[in-house]
Structures are given as structure tokens and as C-alpha cells.
Amino acid sequence: MNLTPQQKATGRENFNTVMGEQLSGESRRDFIKKGILGGVVSGAGLGGFYYGYSQTLPKPVRVAVLGTGDEGSVLIGALNPAFHEVVAIADIRPYSVYRAFHGDWYSEPAHKARPGLMSRYGWKSEDEARKHVKVYSDYRELLQNEKDIEAVIIALPLHLHAPAAVAALQRGKHVLTEKLMAQTVHECKEMARVAEEMKLYLAVGHQRHYNVLYDNAKEMIRSGLLGDLHYVRAQWHRGNLPGNDSWSQPLPPGVKTKEEDKNFDRLARELKSWEKELERTTDAVAAVTLRQRIEQKKKQIEDIVLHTPAKDQKSAKDFGYQDMEVKDGAGKVIYNRPAIEELIRWRLWNRTSAGLMAELGSHQLDAASIFVAAAHGGEKQLPLSVAAAAGRPLFQADREVEDHVYCIIEFPAPGYDPKDEMARRKKIGVQYASINGNGFGGYGEVVFGAKGTLIIEKELEAMLYKDADTESKVGVKSSKGGAPTLDTQASGAAPQAAGVGAIASANVSRGYAEQLEHWAWCVRNPSPDHQPHCTPKVAMGDAIIALVTNMAAQQGARVEFKPEWFDPKSDATPEGVKPDTGRYKS
Fold it and tell me: What is the pTM of this model?
């Protein structure tokens, strides 16, 4: 992934060339050409013009958003008022509720990803917005009281995905939940069974299923352009270090002392700095942004009420979050974690999270599954085995999840047969690493084929090369057998419909908007033929890969996947817990 600018430019041009060739003939890609040439495609995504659903609905689906933190606010930013009418939200943090309405002003990229409900729906003030959107702290109260909502979007901490999804489904609400589907496989199966029983849509937020680059990559692999596929390499490297960790969000002043927390006064320092900057600035535009940041920071500090609540207010403990003492081998307490820390830093703890594989690795192993399925003509394949290792060399007592995880997963290649001595060696290897402490290489996937190499970086940029040649421009030609091959004799990019080639490298939607729109469209147009791209069975497969990789890393062993784990109707699970939908109360 560490290519020169020229090599990247060549790779993008190659991808555009081949993509232009693929855009010939009658296919759903004609929707793109018509949309671009008609001037109707915006930066929000290609939507129905690419995936074949309507560009609007006769009536938007009435939805509630459960959990409006980092990911919930991203989903809010991807909502389309023509498809979704938000009537209620639920979050226990004052900061998350404020950000749901006003958006995230801490940086330009943050505000672009999280513009807030007021921006999405054109409301001038929070008071006006609250006339349309009712606010709850407890998602369970929302589900009990808001009987006329049709669907819910779930972006709660991972341990609440299954309870919230099942509660919503049992009340007759369609569900779109963020990944990972659930914290355990038996919970995934419970969710799938309730959705089937209630005849409702349950979609899961693996957005690469709605990303144009991945769809075109899938077509390139399926057509044989890359040749036989044997290896996929993926990574998500981050430079997080103690005191500068994106998962260790700052706590409100008063929760901990300087000795207890490296970030103990960060919020207060940032607030004071912005207030001083506002006093000095003479730029009217900058002043508006600073005021927004100051108000947002005050709300983040206001989360202290969940640690020391006033009369008639609830604490984090009242919502089920827990204090914990971390002890060393001799039984000495070396770290005290209050309940509010488990809430704000939920990704760091085993009770509420499943670590790097759930939060990062699941996305990229989902992509690897898409690539492997394409090598089999589009038929999803079950993994064969995983070997993994993990460790926590950087961070110590302030978390339970690992700093680093590395794994190798085996998938069947076309022609694989476990009963045949030679055919059982036909496998596709997927190597994945997610590390902290060094962000070199960033994140992305590399697909190695016998005829070519495909690289996708950060879900936004695609590059294609013949074999290992990162310099040559390529075209497409037919081989004697009729299958397409890469042609390094091409003098330049093939002619394309106006604007189409830019998809490979500019303004690409990550798939959030398309997934939310298509889910709402399915709700309005129910049919066995109309299904979200990431159904419960697909999402459960991704969850099993991530969770079993965690098991392999903890055991330091190779684990073979069992087919019955992937069957929602089977009671078999890797953790050995039988699914039980009866444990949920309606």
C-alpha cells in the first residue's frame, strides 16, 4: 500500500479504464451513466441509480435512532429526508444528544461526517428540531412509548445490539443495526430468528456492500480479470499510544485525577483554549465555528451528571454500566474504573466490546469475504480455519481489549474438495492485522490474483495493476478462452461516459447513505425479492469470523470453523451457548 504518487495515479487510471469497459452493455451501471449525464448524482452517493431502487419514496419511513454517539451521528449524517423521518432518538449522554442535533464541529471532516439533524432536515434551532424529534435517555422507554415508529437504527455499544434489536423486532419494528451484529454468536442467531418469526427486515451495517468501488472490484474478480485468486492482505494500522488513543475518549473533569488518567483535564483545557481564541479572533466565520465548538465542549463536560447525578437524575450505574477494580497478579488494585468510564470508553472493555476484530477487523474481513465469493462466481463461502495471535504491549491496566491482533484465515478456492488429496490444497489465504502504536500504511485491502493486483485504500480509492507491475497503464482485451485479461500495451484510458471514471478516485460514498436508503426502500416495498445486501445470515457470517478469530488469539491455537455455526436454525455456536429467544421479554 506504500506506493509513490505516480504509481497510485497509474493504478487509479488502470481501475478507471477497466471500470469504463465494464460499464458497457445493459446493466445496473447504466443507471450511473444516466444519473451522471442527467446531473442528478450528488456527493451523497449514487444511490438508486446504481443499485436499482427508487430515488424517493411516496412517504418516508418513520424511524428512531438508538444511540447517537460517534457512529450514530455518522448514520444521522447519512439520512435522506425523502426516505427517513426521524421522530425520536435515545442516548444517555447529554453530549451525544447535543451532537445528534447540532453535529460535530471539532473539525471540518468531523462536521462533514456528522452534520446533525438540524442540518439534515433544515431546522433552524434545537427547539424547532425537538418539535419533530422526541428525546429519550433510555432506549427501552423509547420503544415502549413510540408505538407509531416503523423502524429503528441501532448504534448503541456492542453489548446492547442484541437486546435492543430483539426488543424492537418484537414490537414490530424493522431494524438496521451497526456492526458487529452482536457480541456473541448465540445472540446473532436469536436476532435472526426473531426477525424471521416477525417477518421483518433486519439489516446490519457492513457498508462495503453498498460501496461502488467494492462492487466493481467484485465484478473484476468474478469476470476472471485478476486470474485465479489465492491471497488477500488487509490491515488497519493506527498510531494510538497512551495519552493519545482515539478509543480512550476524555472523561469529564472531576471523574479522575491527573495521576489516574493521562487525559484527566483535556476537556477543560480545550474549552479554555477555544474561549481565549474566540476573544482574539476578528474573523466572523471563524467566530461562528468557535462558538459551536465551545458549546459542544460544554456539553461534553456536562456528561459529569452521569458520574455525580443531581436529584432525580440517573447515573451511568442506573443504566447498567459498572464500576470495576483492575488487580495485578498479587491481588493489588492497580486501576479503578468508574461506571462512566465503561460507558464513554466502552470499546476498551470485555463486557461491552469485542475489541479490534469487532470494531475494525469485521469490516475488512467482510470485504475479504466479498472478494472470495466473487472468485466463486458470487456465491458466499464459509471460512475453513483461522490462526491468530494478539497482545497488549502498549496499553496496560486501563483496558481489557488487545492493542494488536494478527490472523490468517483460510477460505476454499474454486475446486476445493476436502476429500481429495490435491483438491483440498486449493485455498485462498486472507491475512489481516490491526495494530496500535504505528499507523504506517493506514488501512485497506490488497487482492492478489495470478493476472493482476487490486488495491482499495480507505474505502475511497481503488488501484489496479497487471501482475506486480505498478508502472504500466492497462486496458482490457479478450483472451483466447473468452475471459478478459489485462493488457499492458494500452496507450491510455479507454473512452468512457462523462464522469464515470472519476468514481474510482473522487467523491466516492462509503455506502452509508445507500444502505440506509435501500433499507427504507425495502420497508416500503416488502417482497422476498427485495432484501438488504447485508442480511442476518450474511452479517452473522462476518460476526462469526471476527469472534472466532478472537477465540483463536486468546487460545493461541488454530481453530476450524464448523458449518453449523453459520446456520441460524442450528443451536450450535462456537462459544457453546444455545440460542434462546425466550429469554427476551416483550
Answer: 0.93
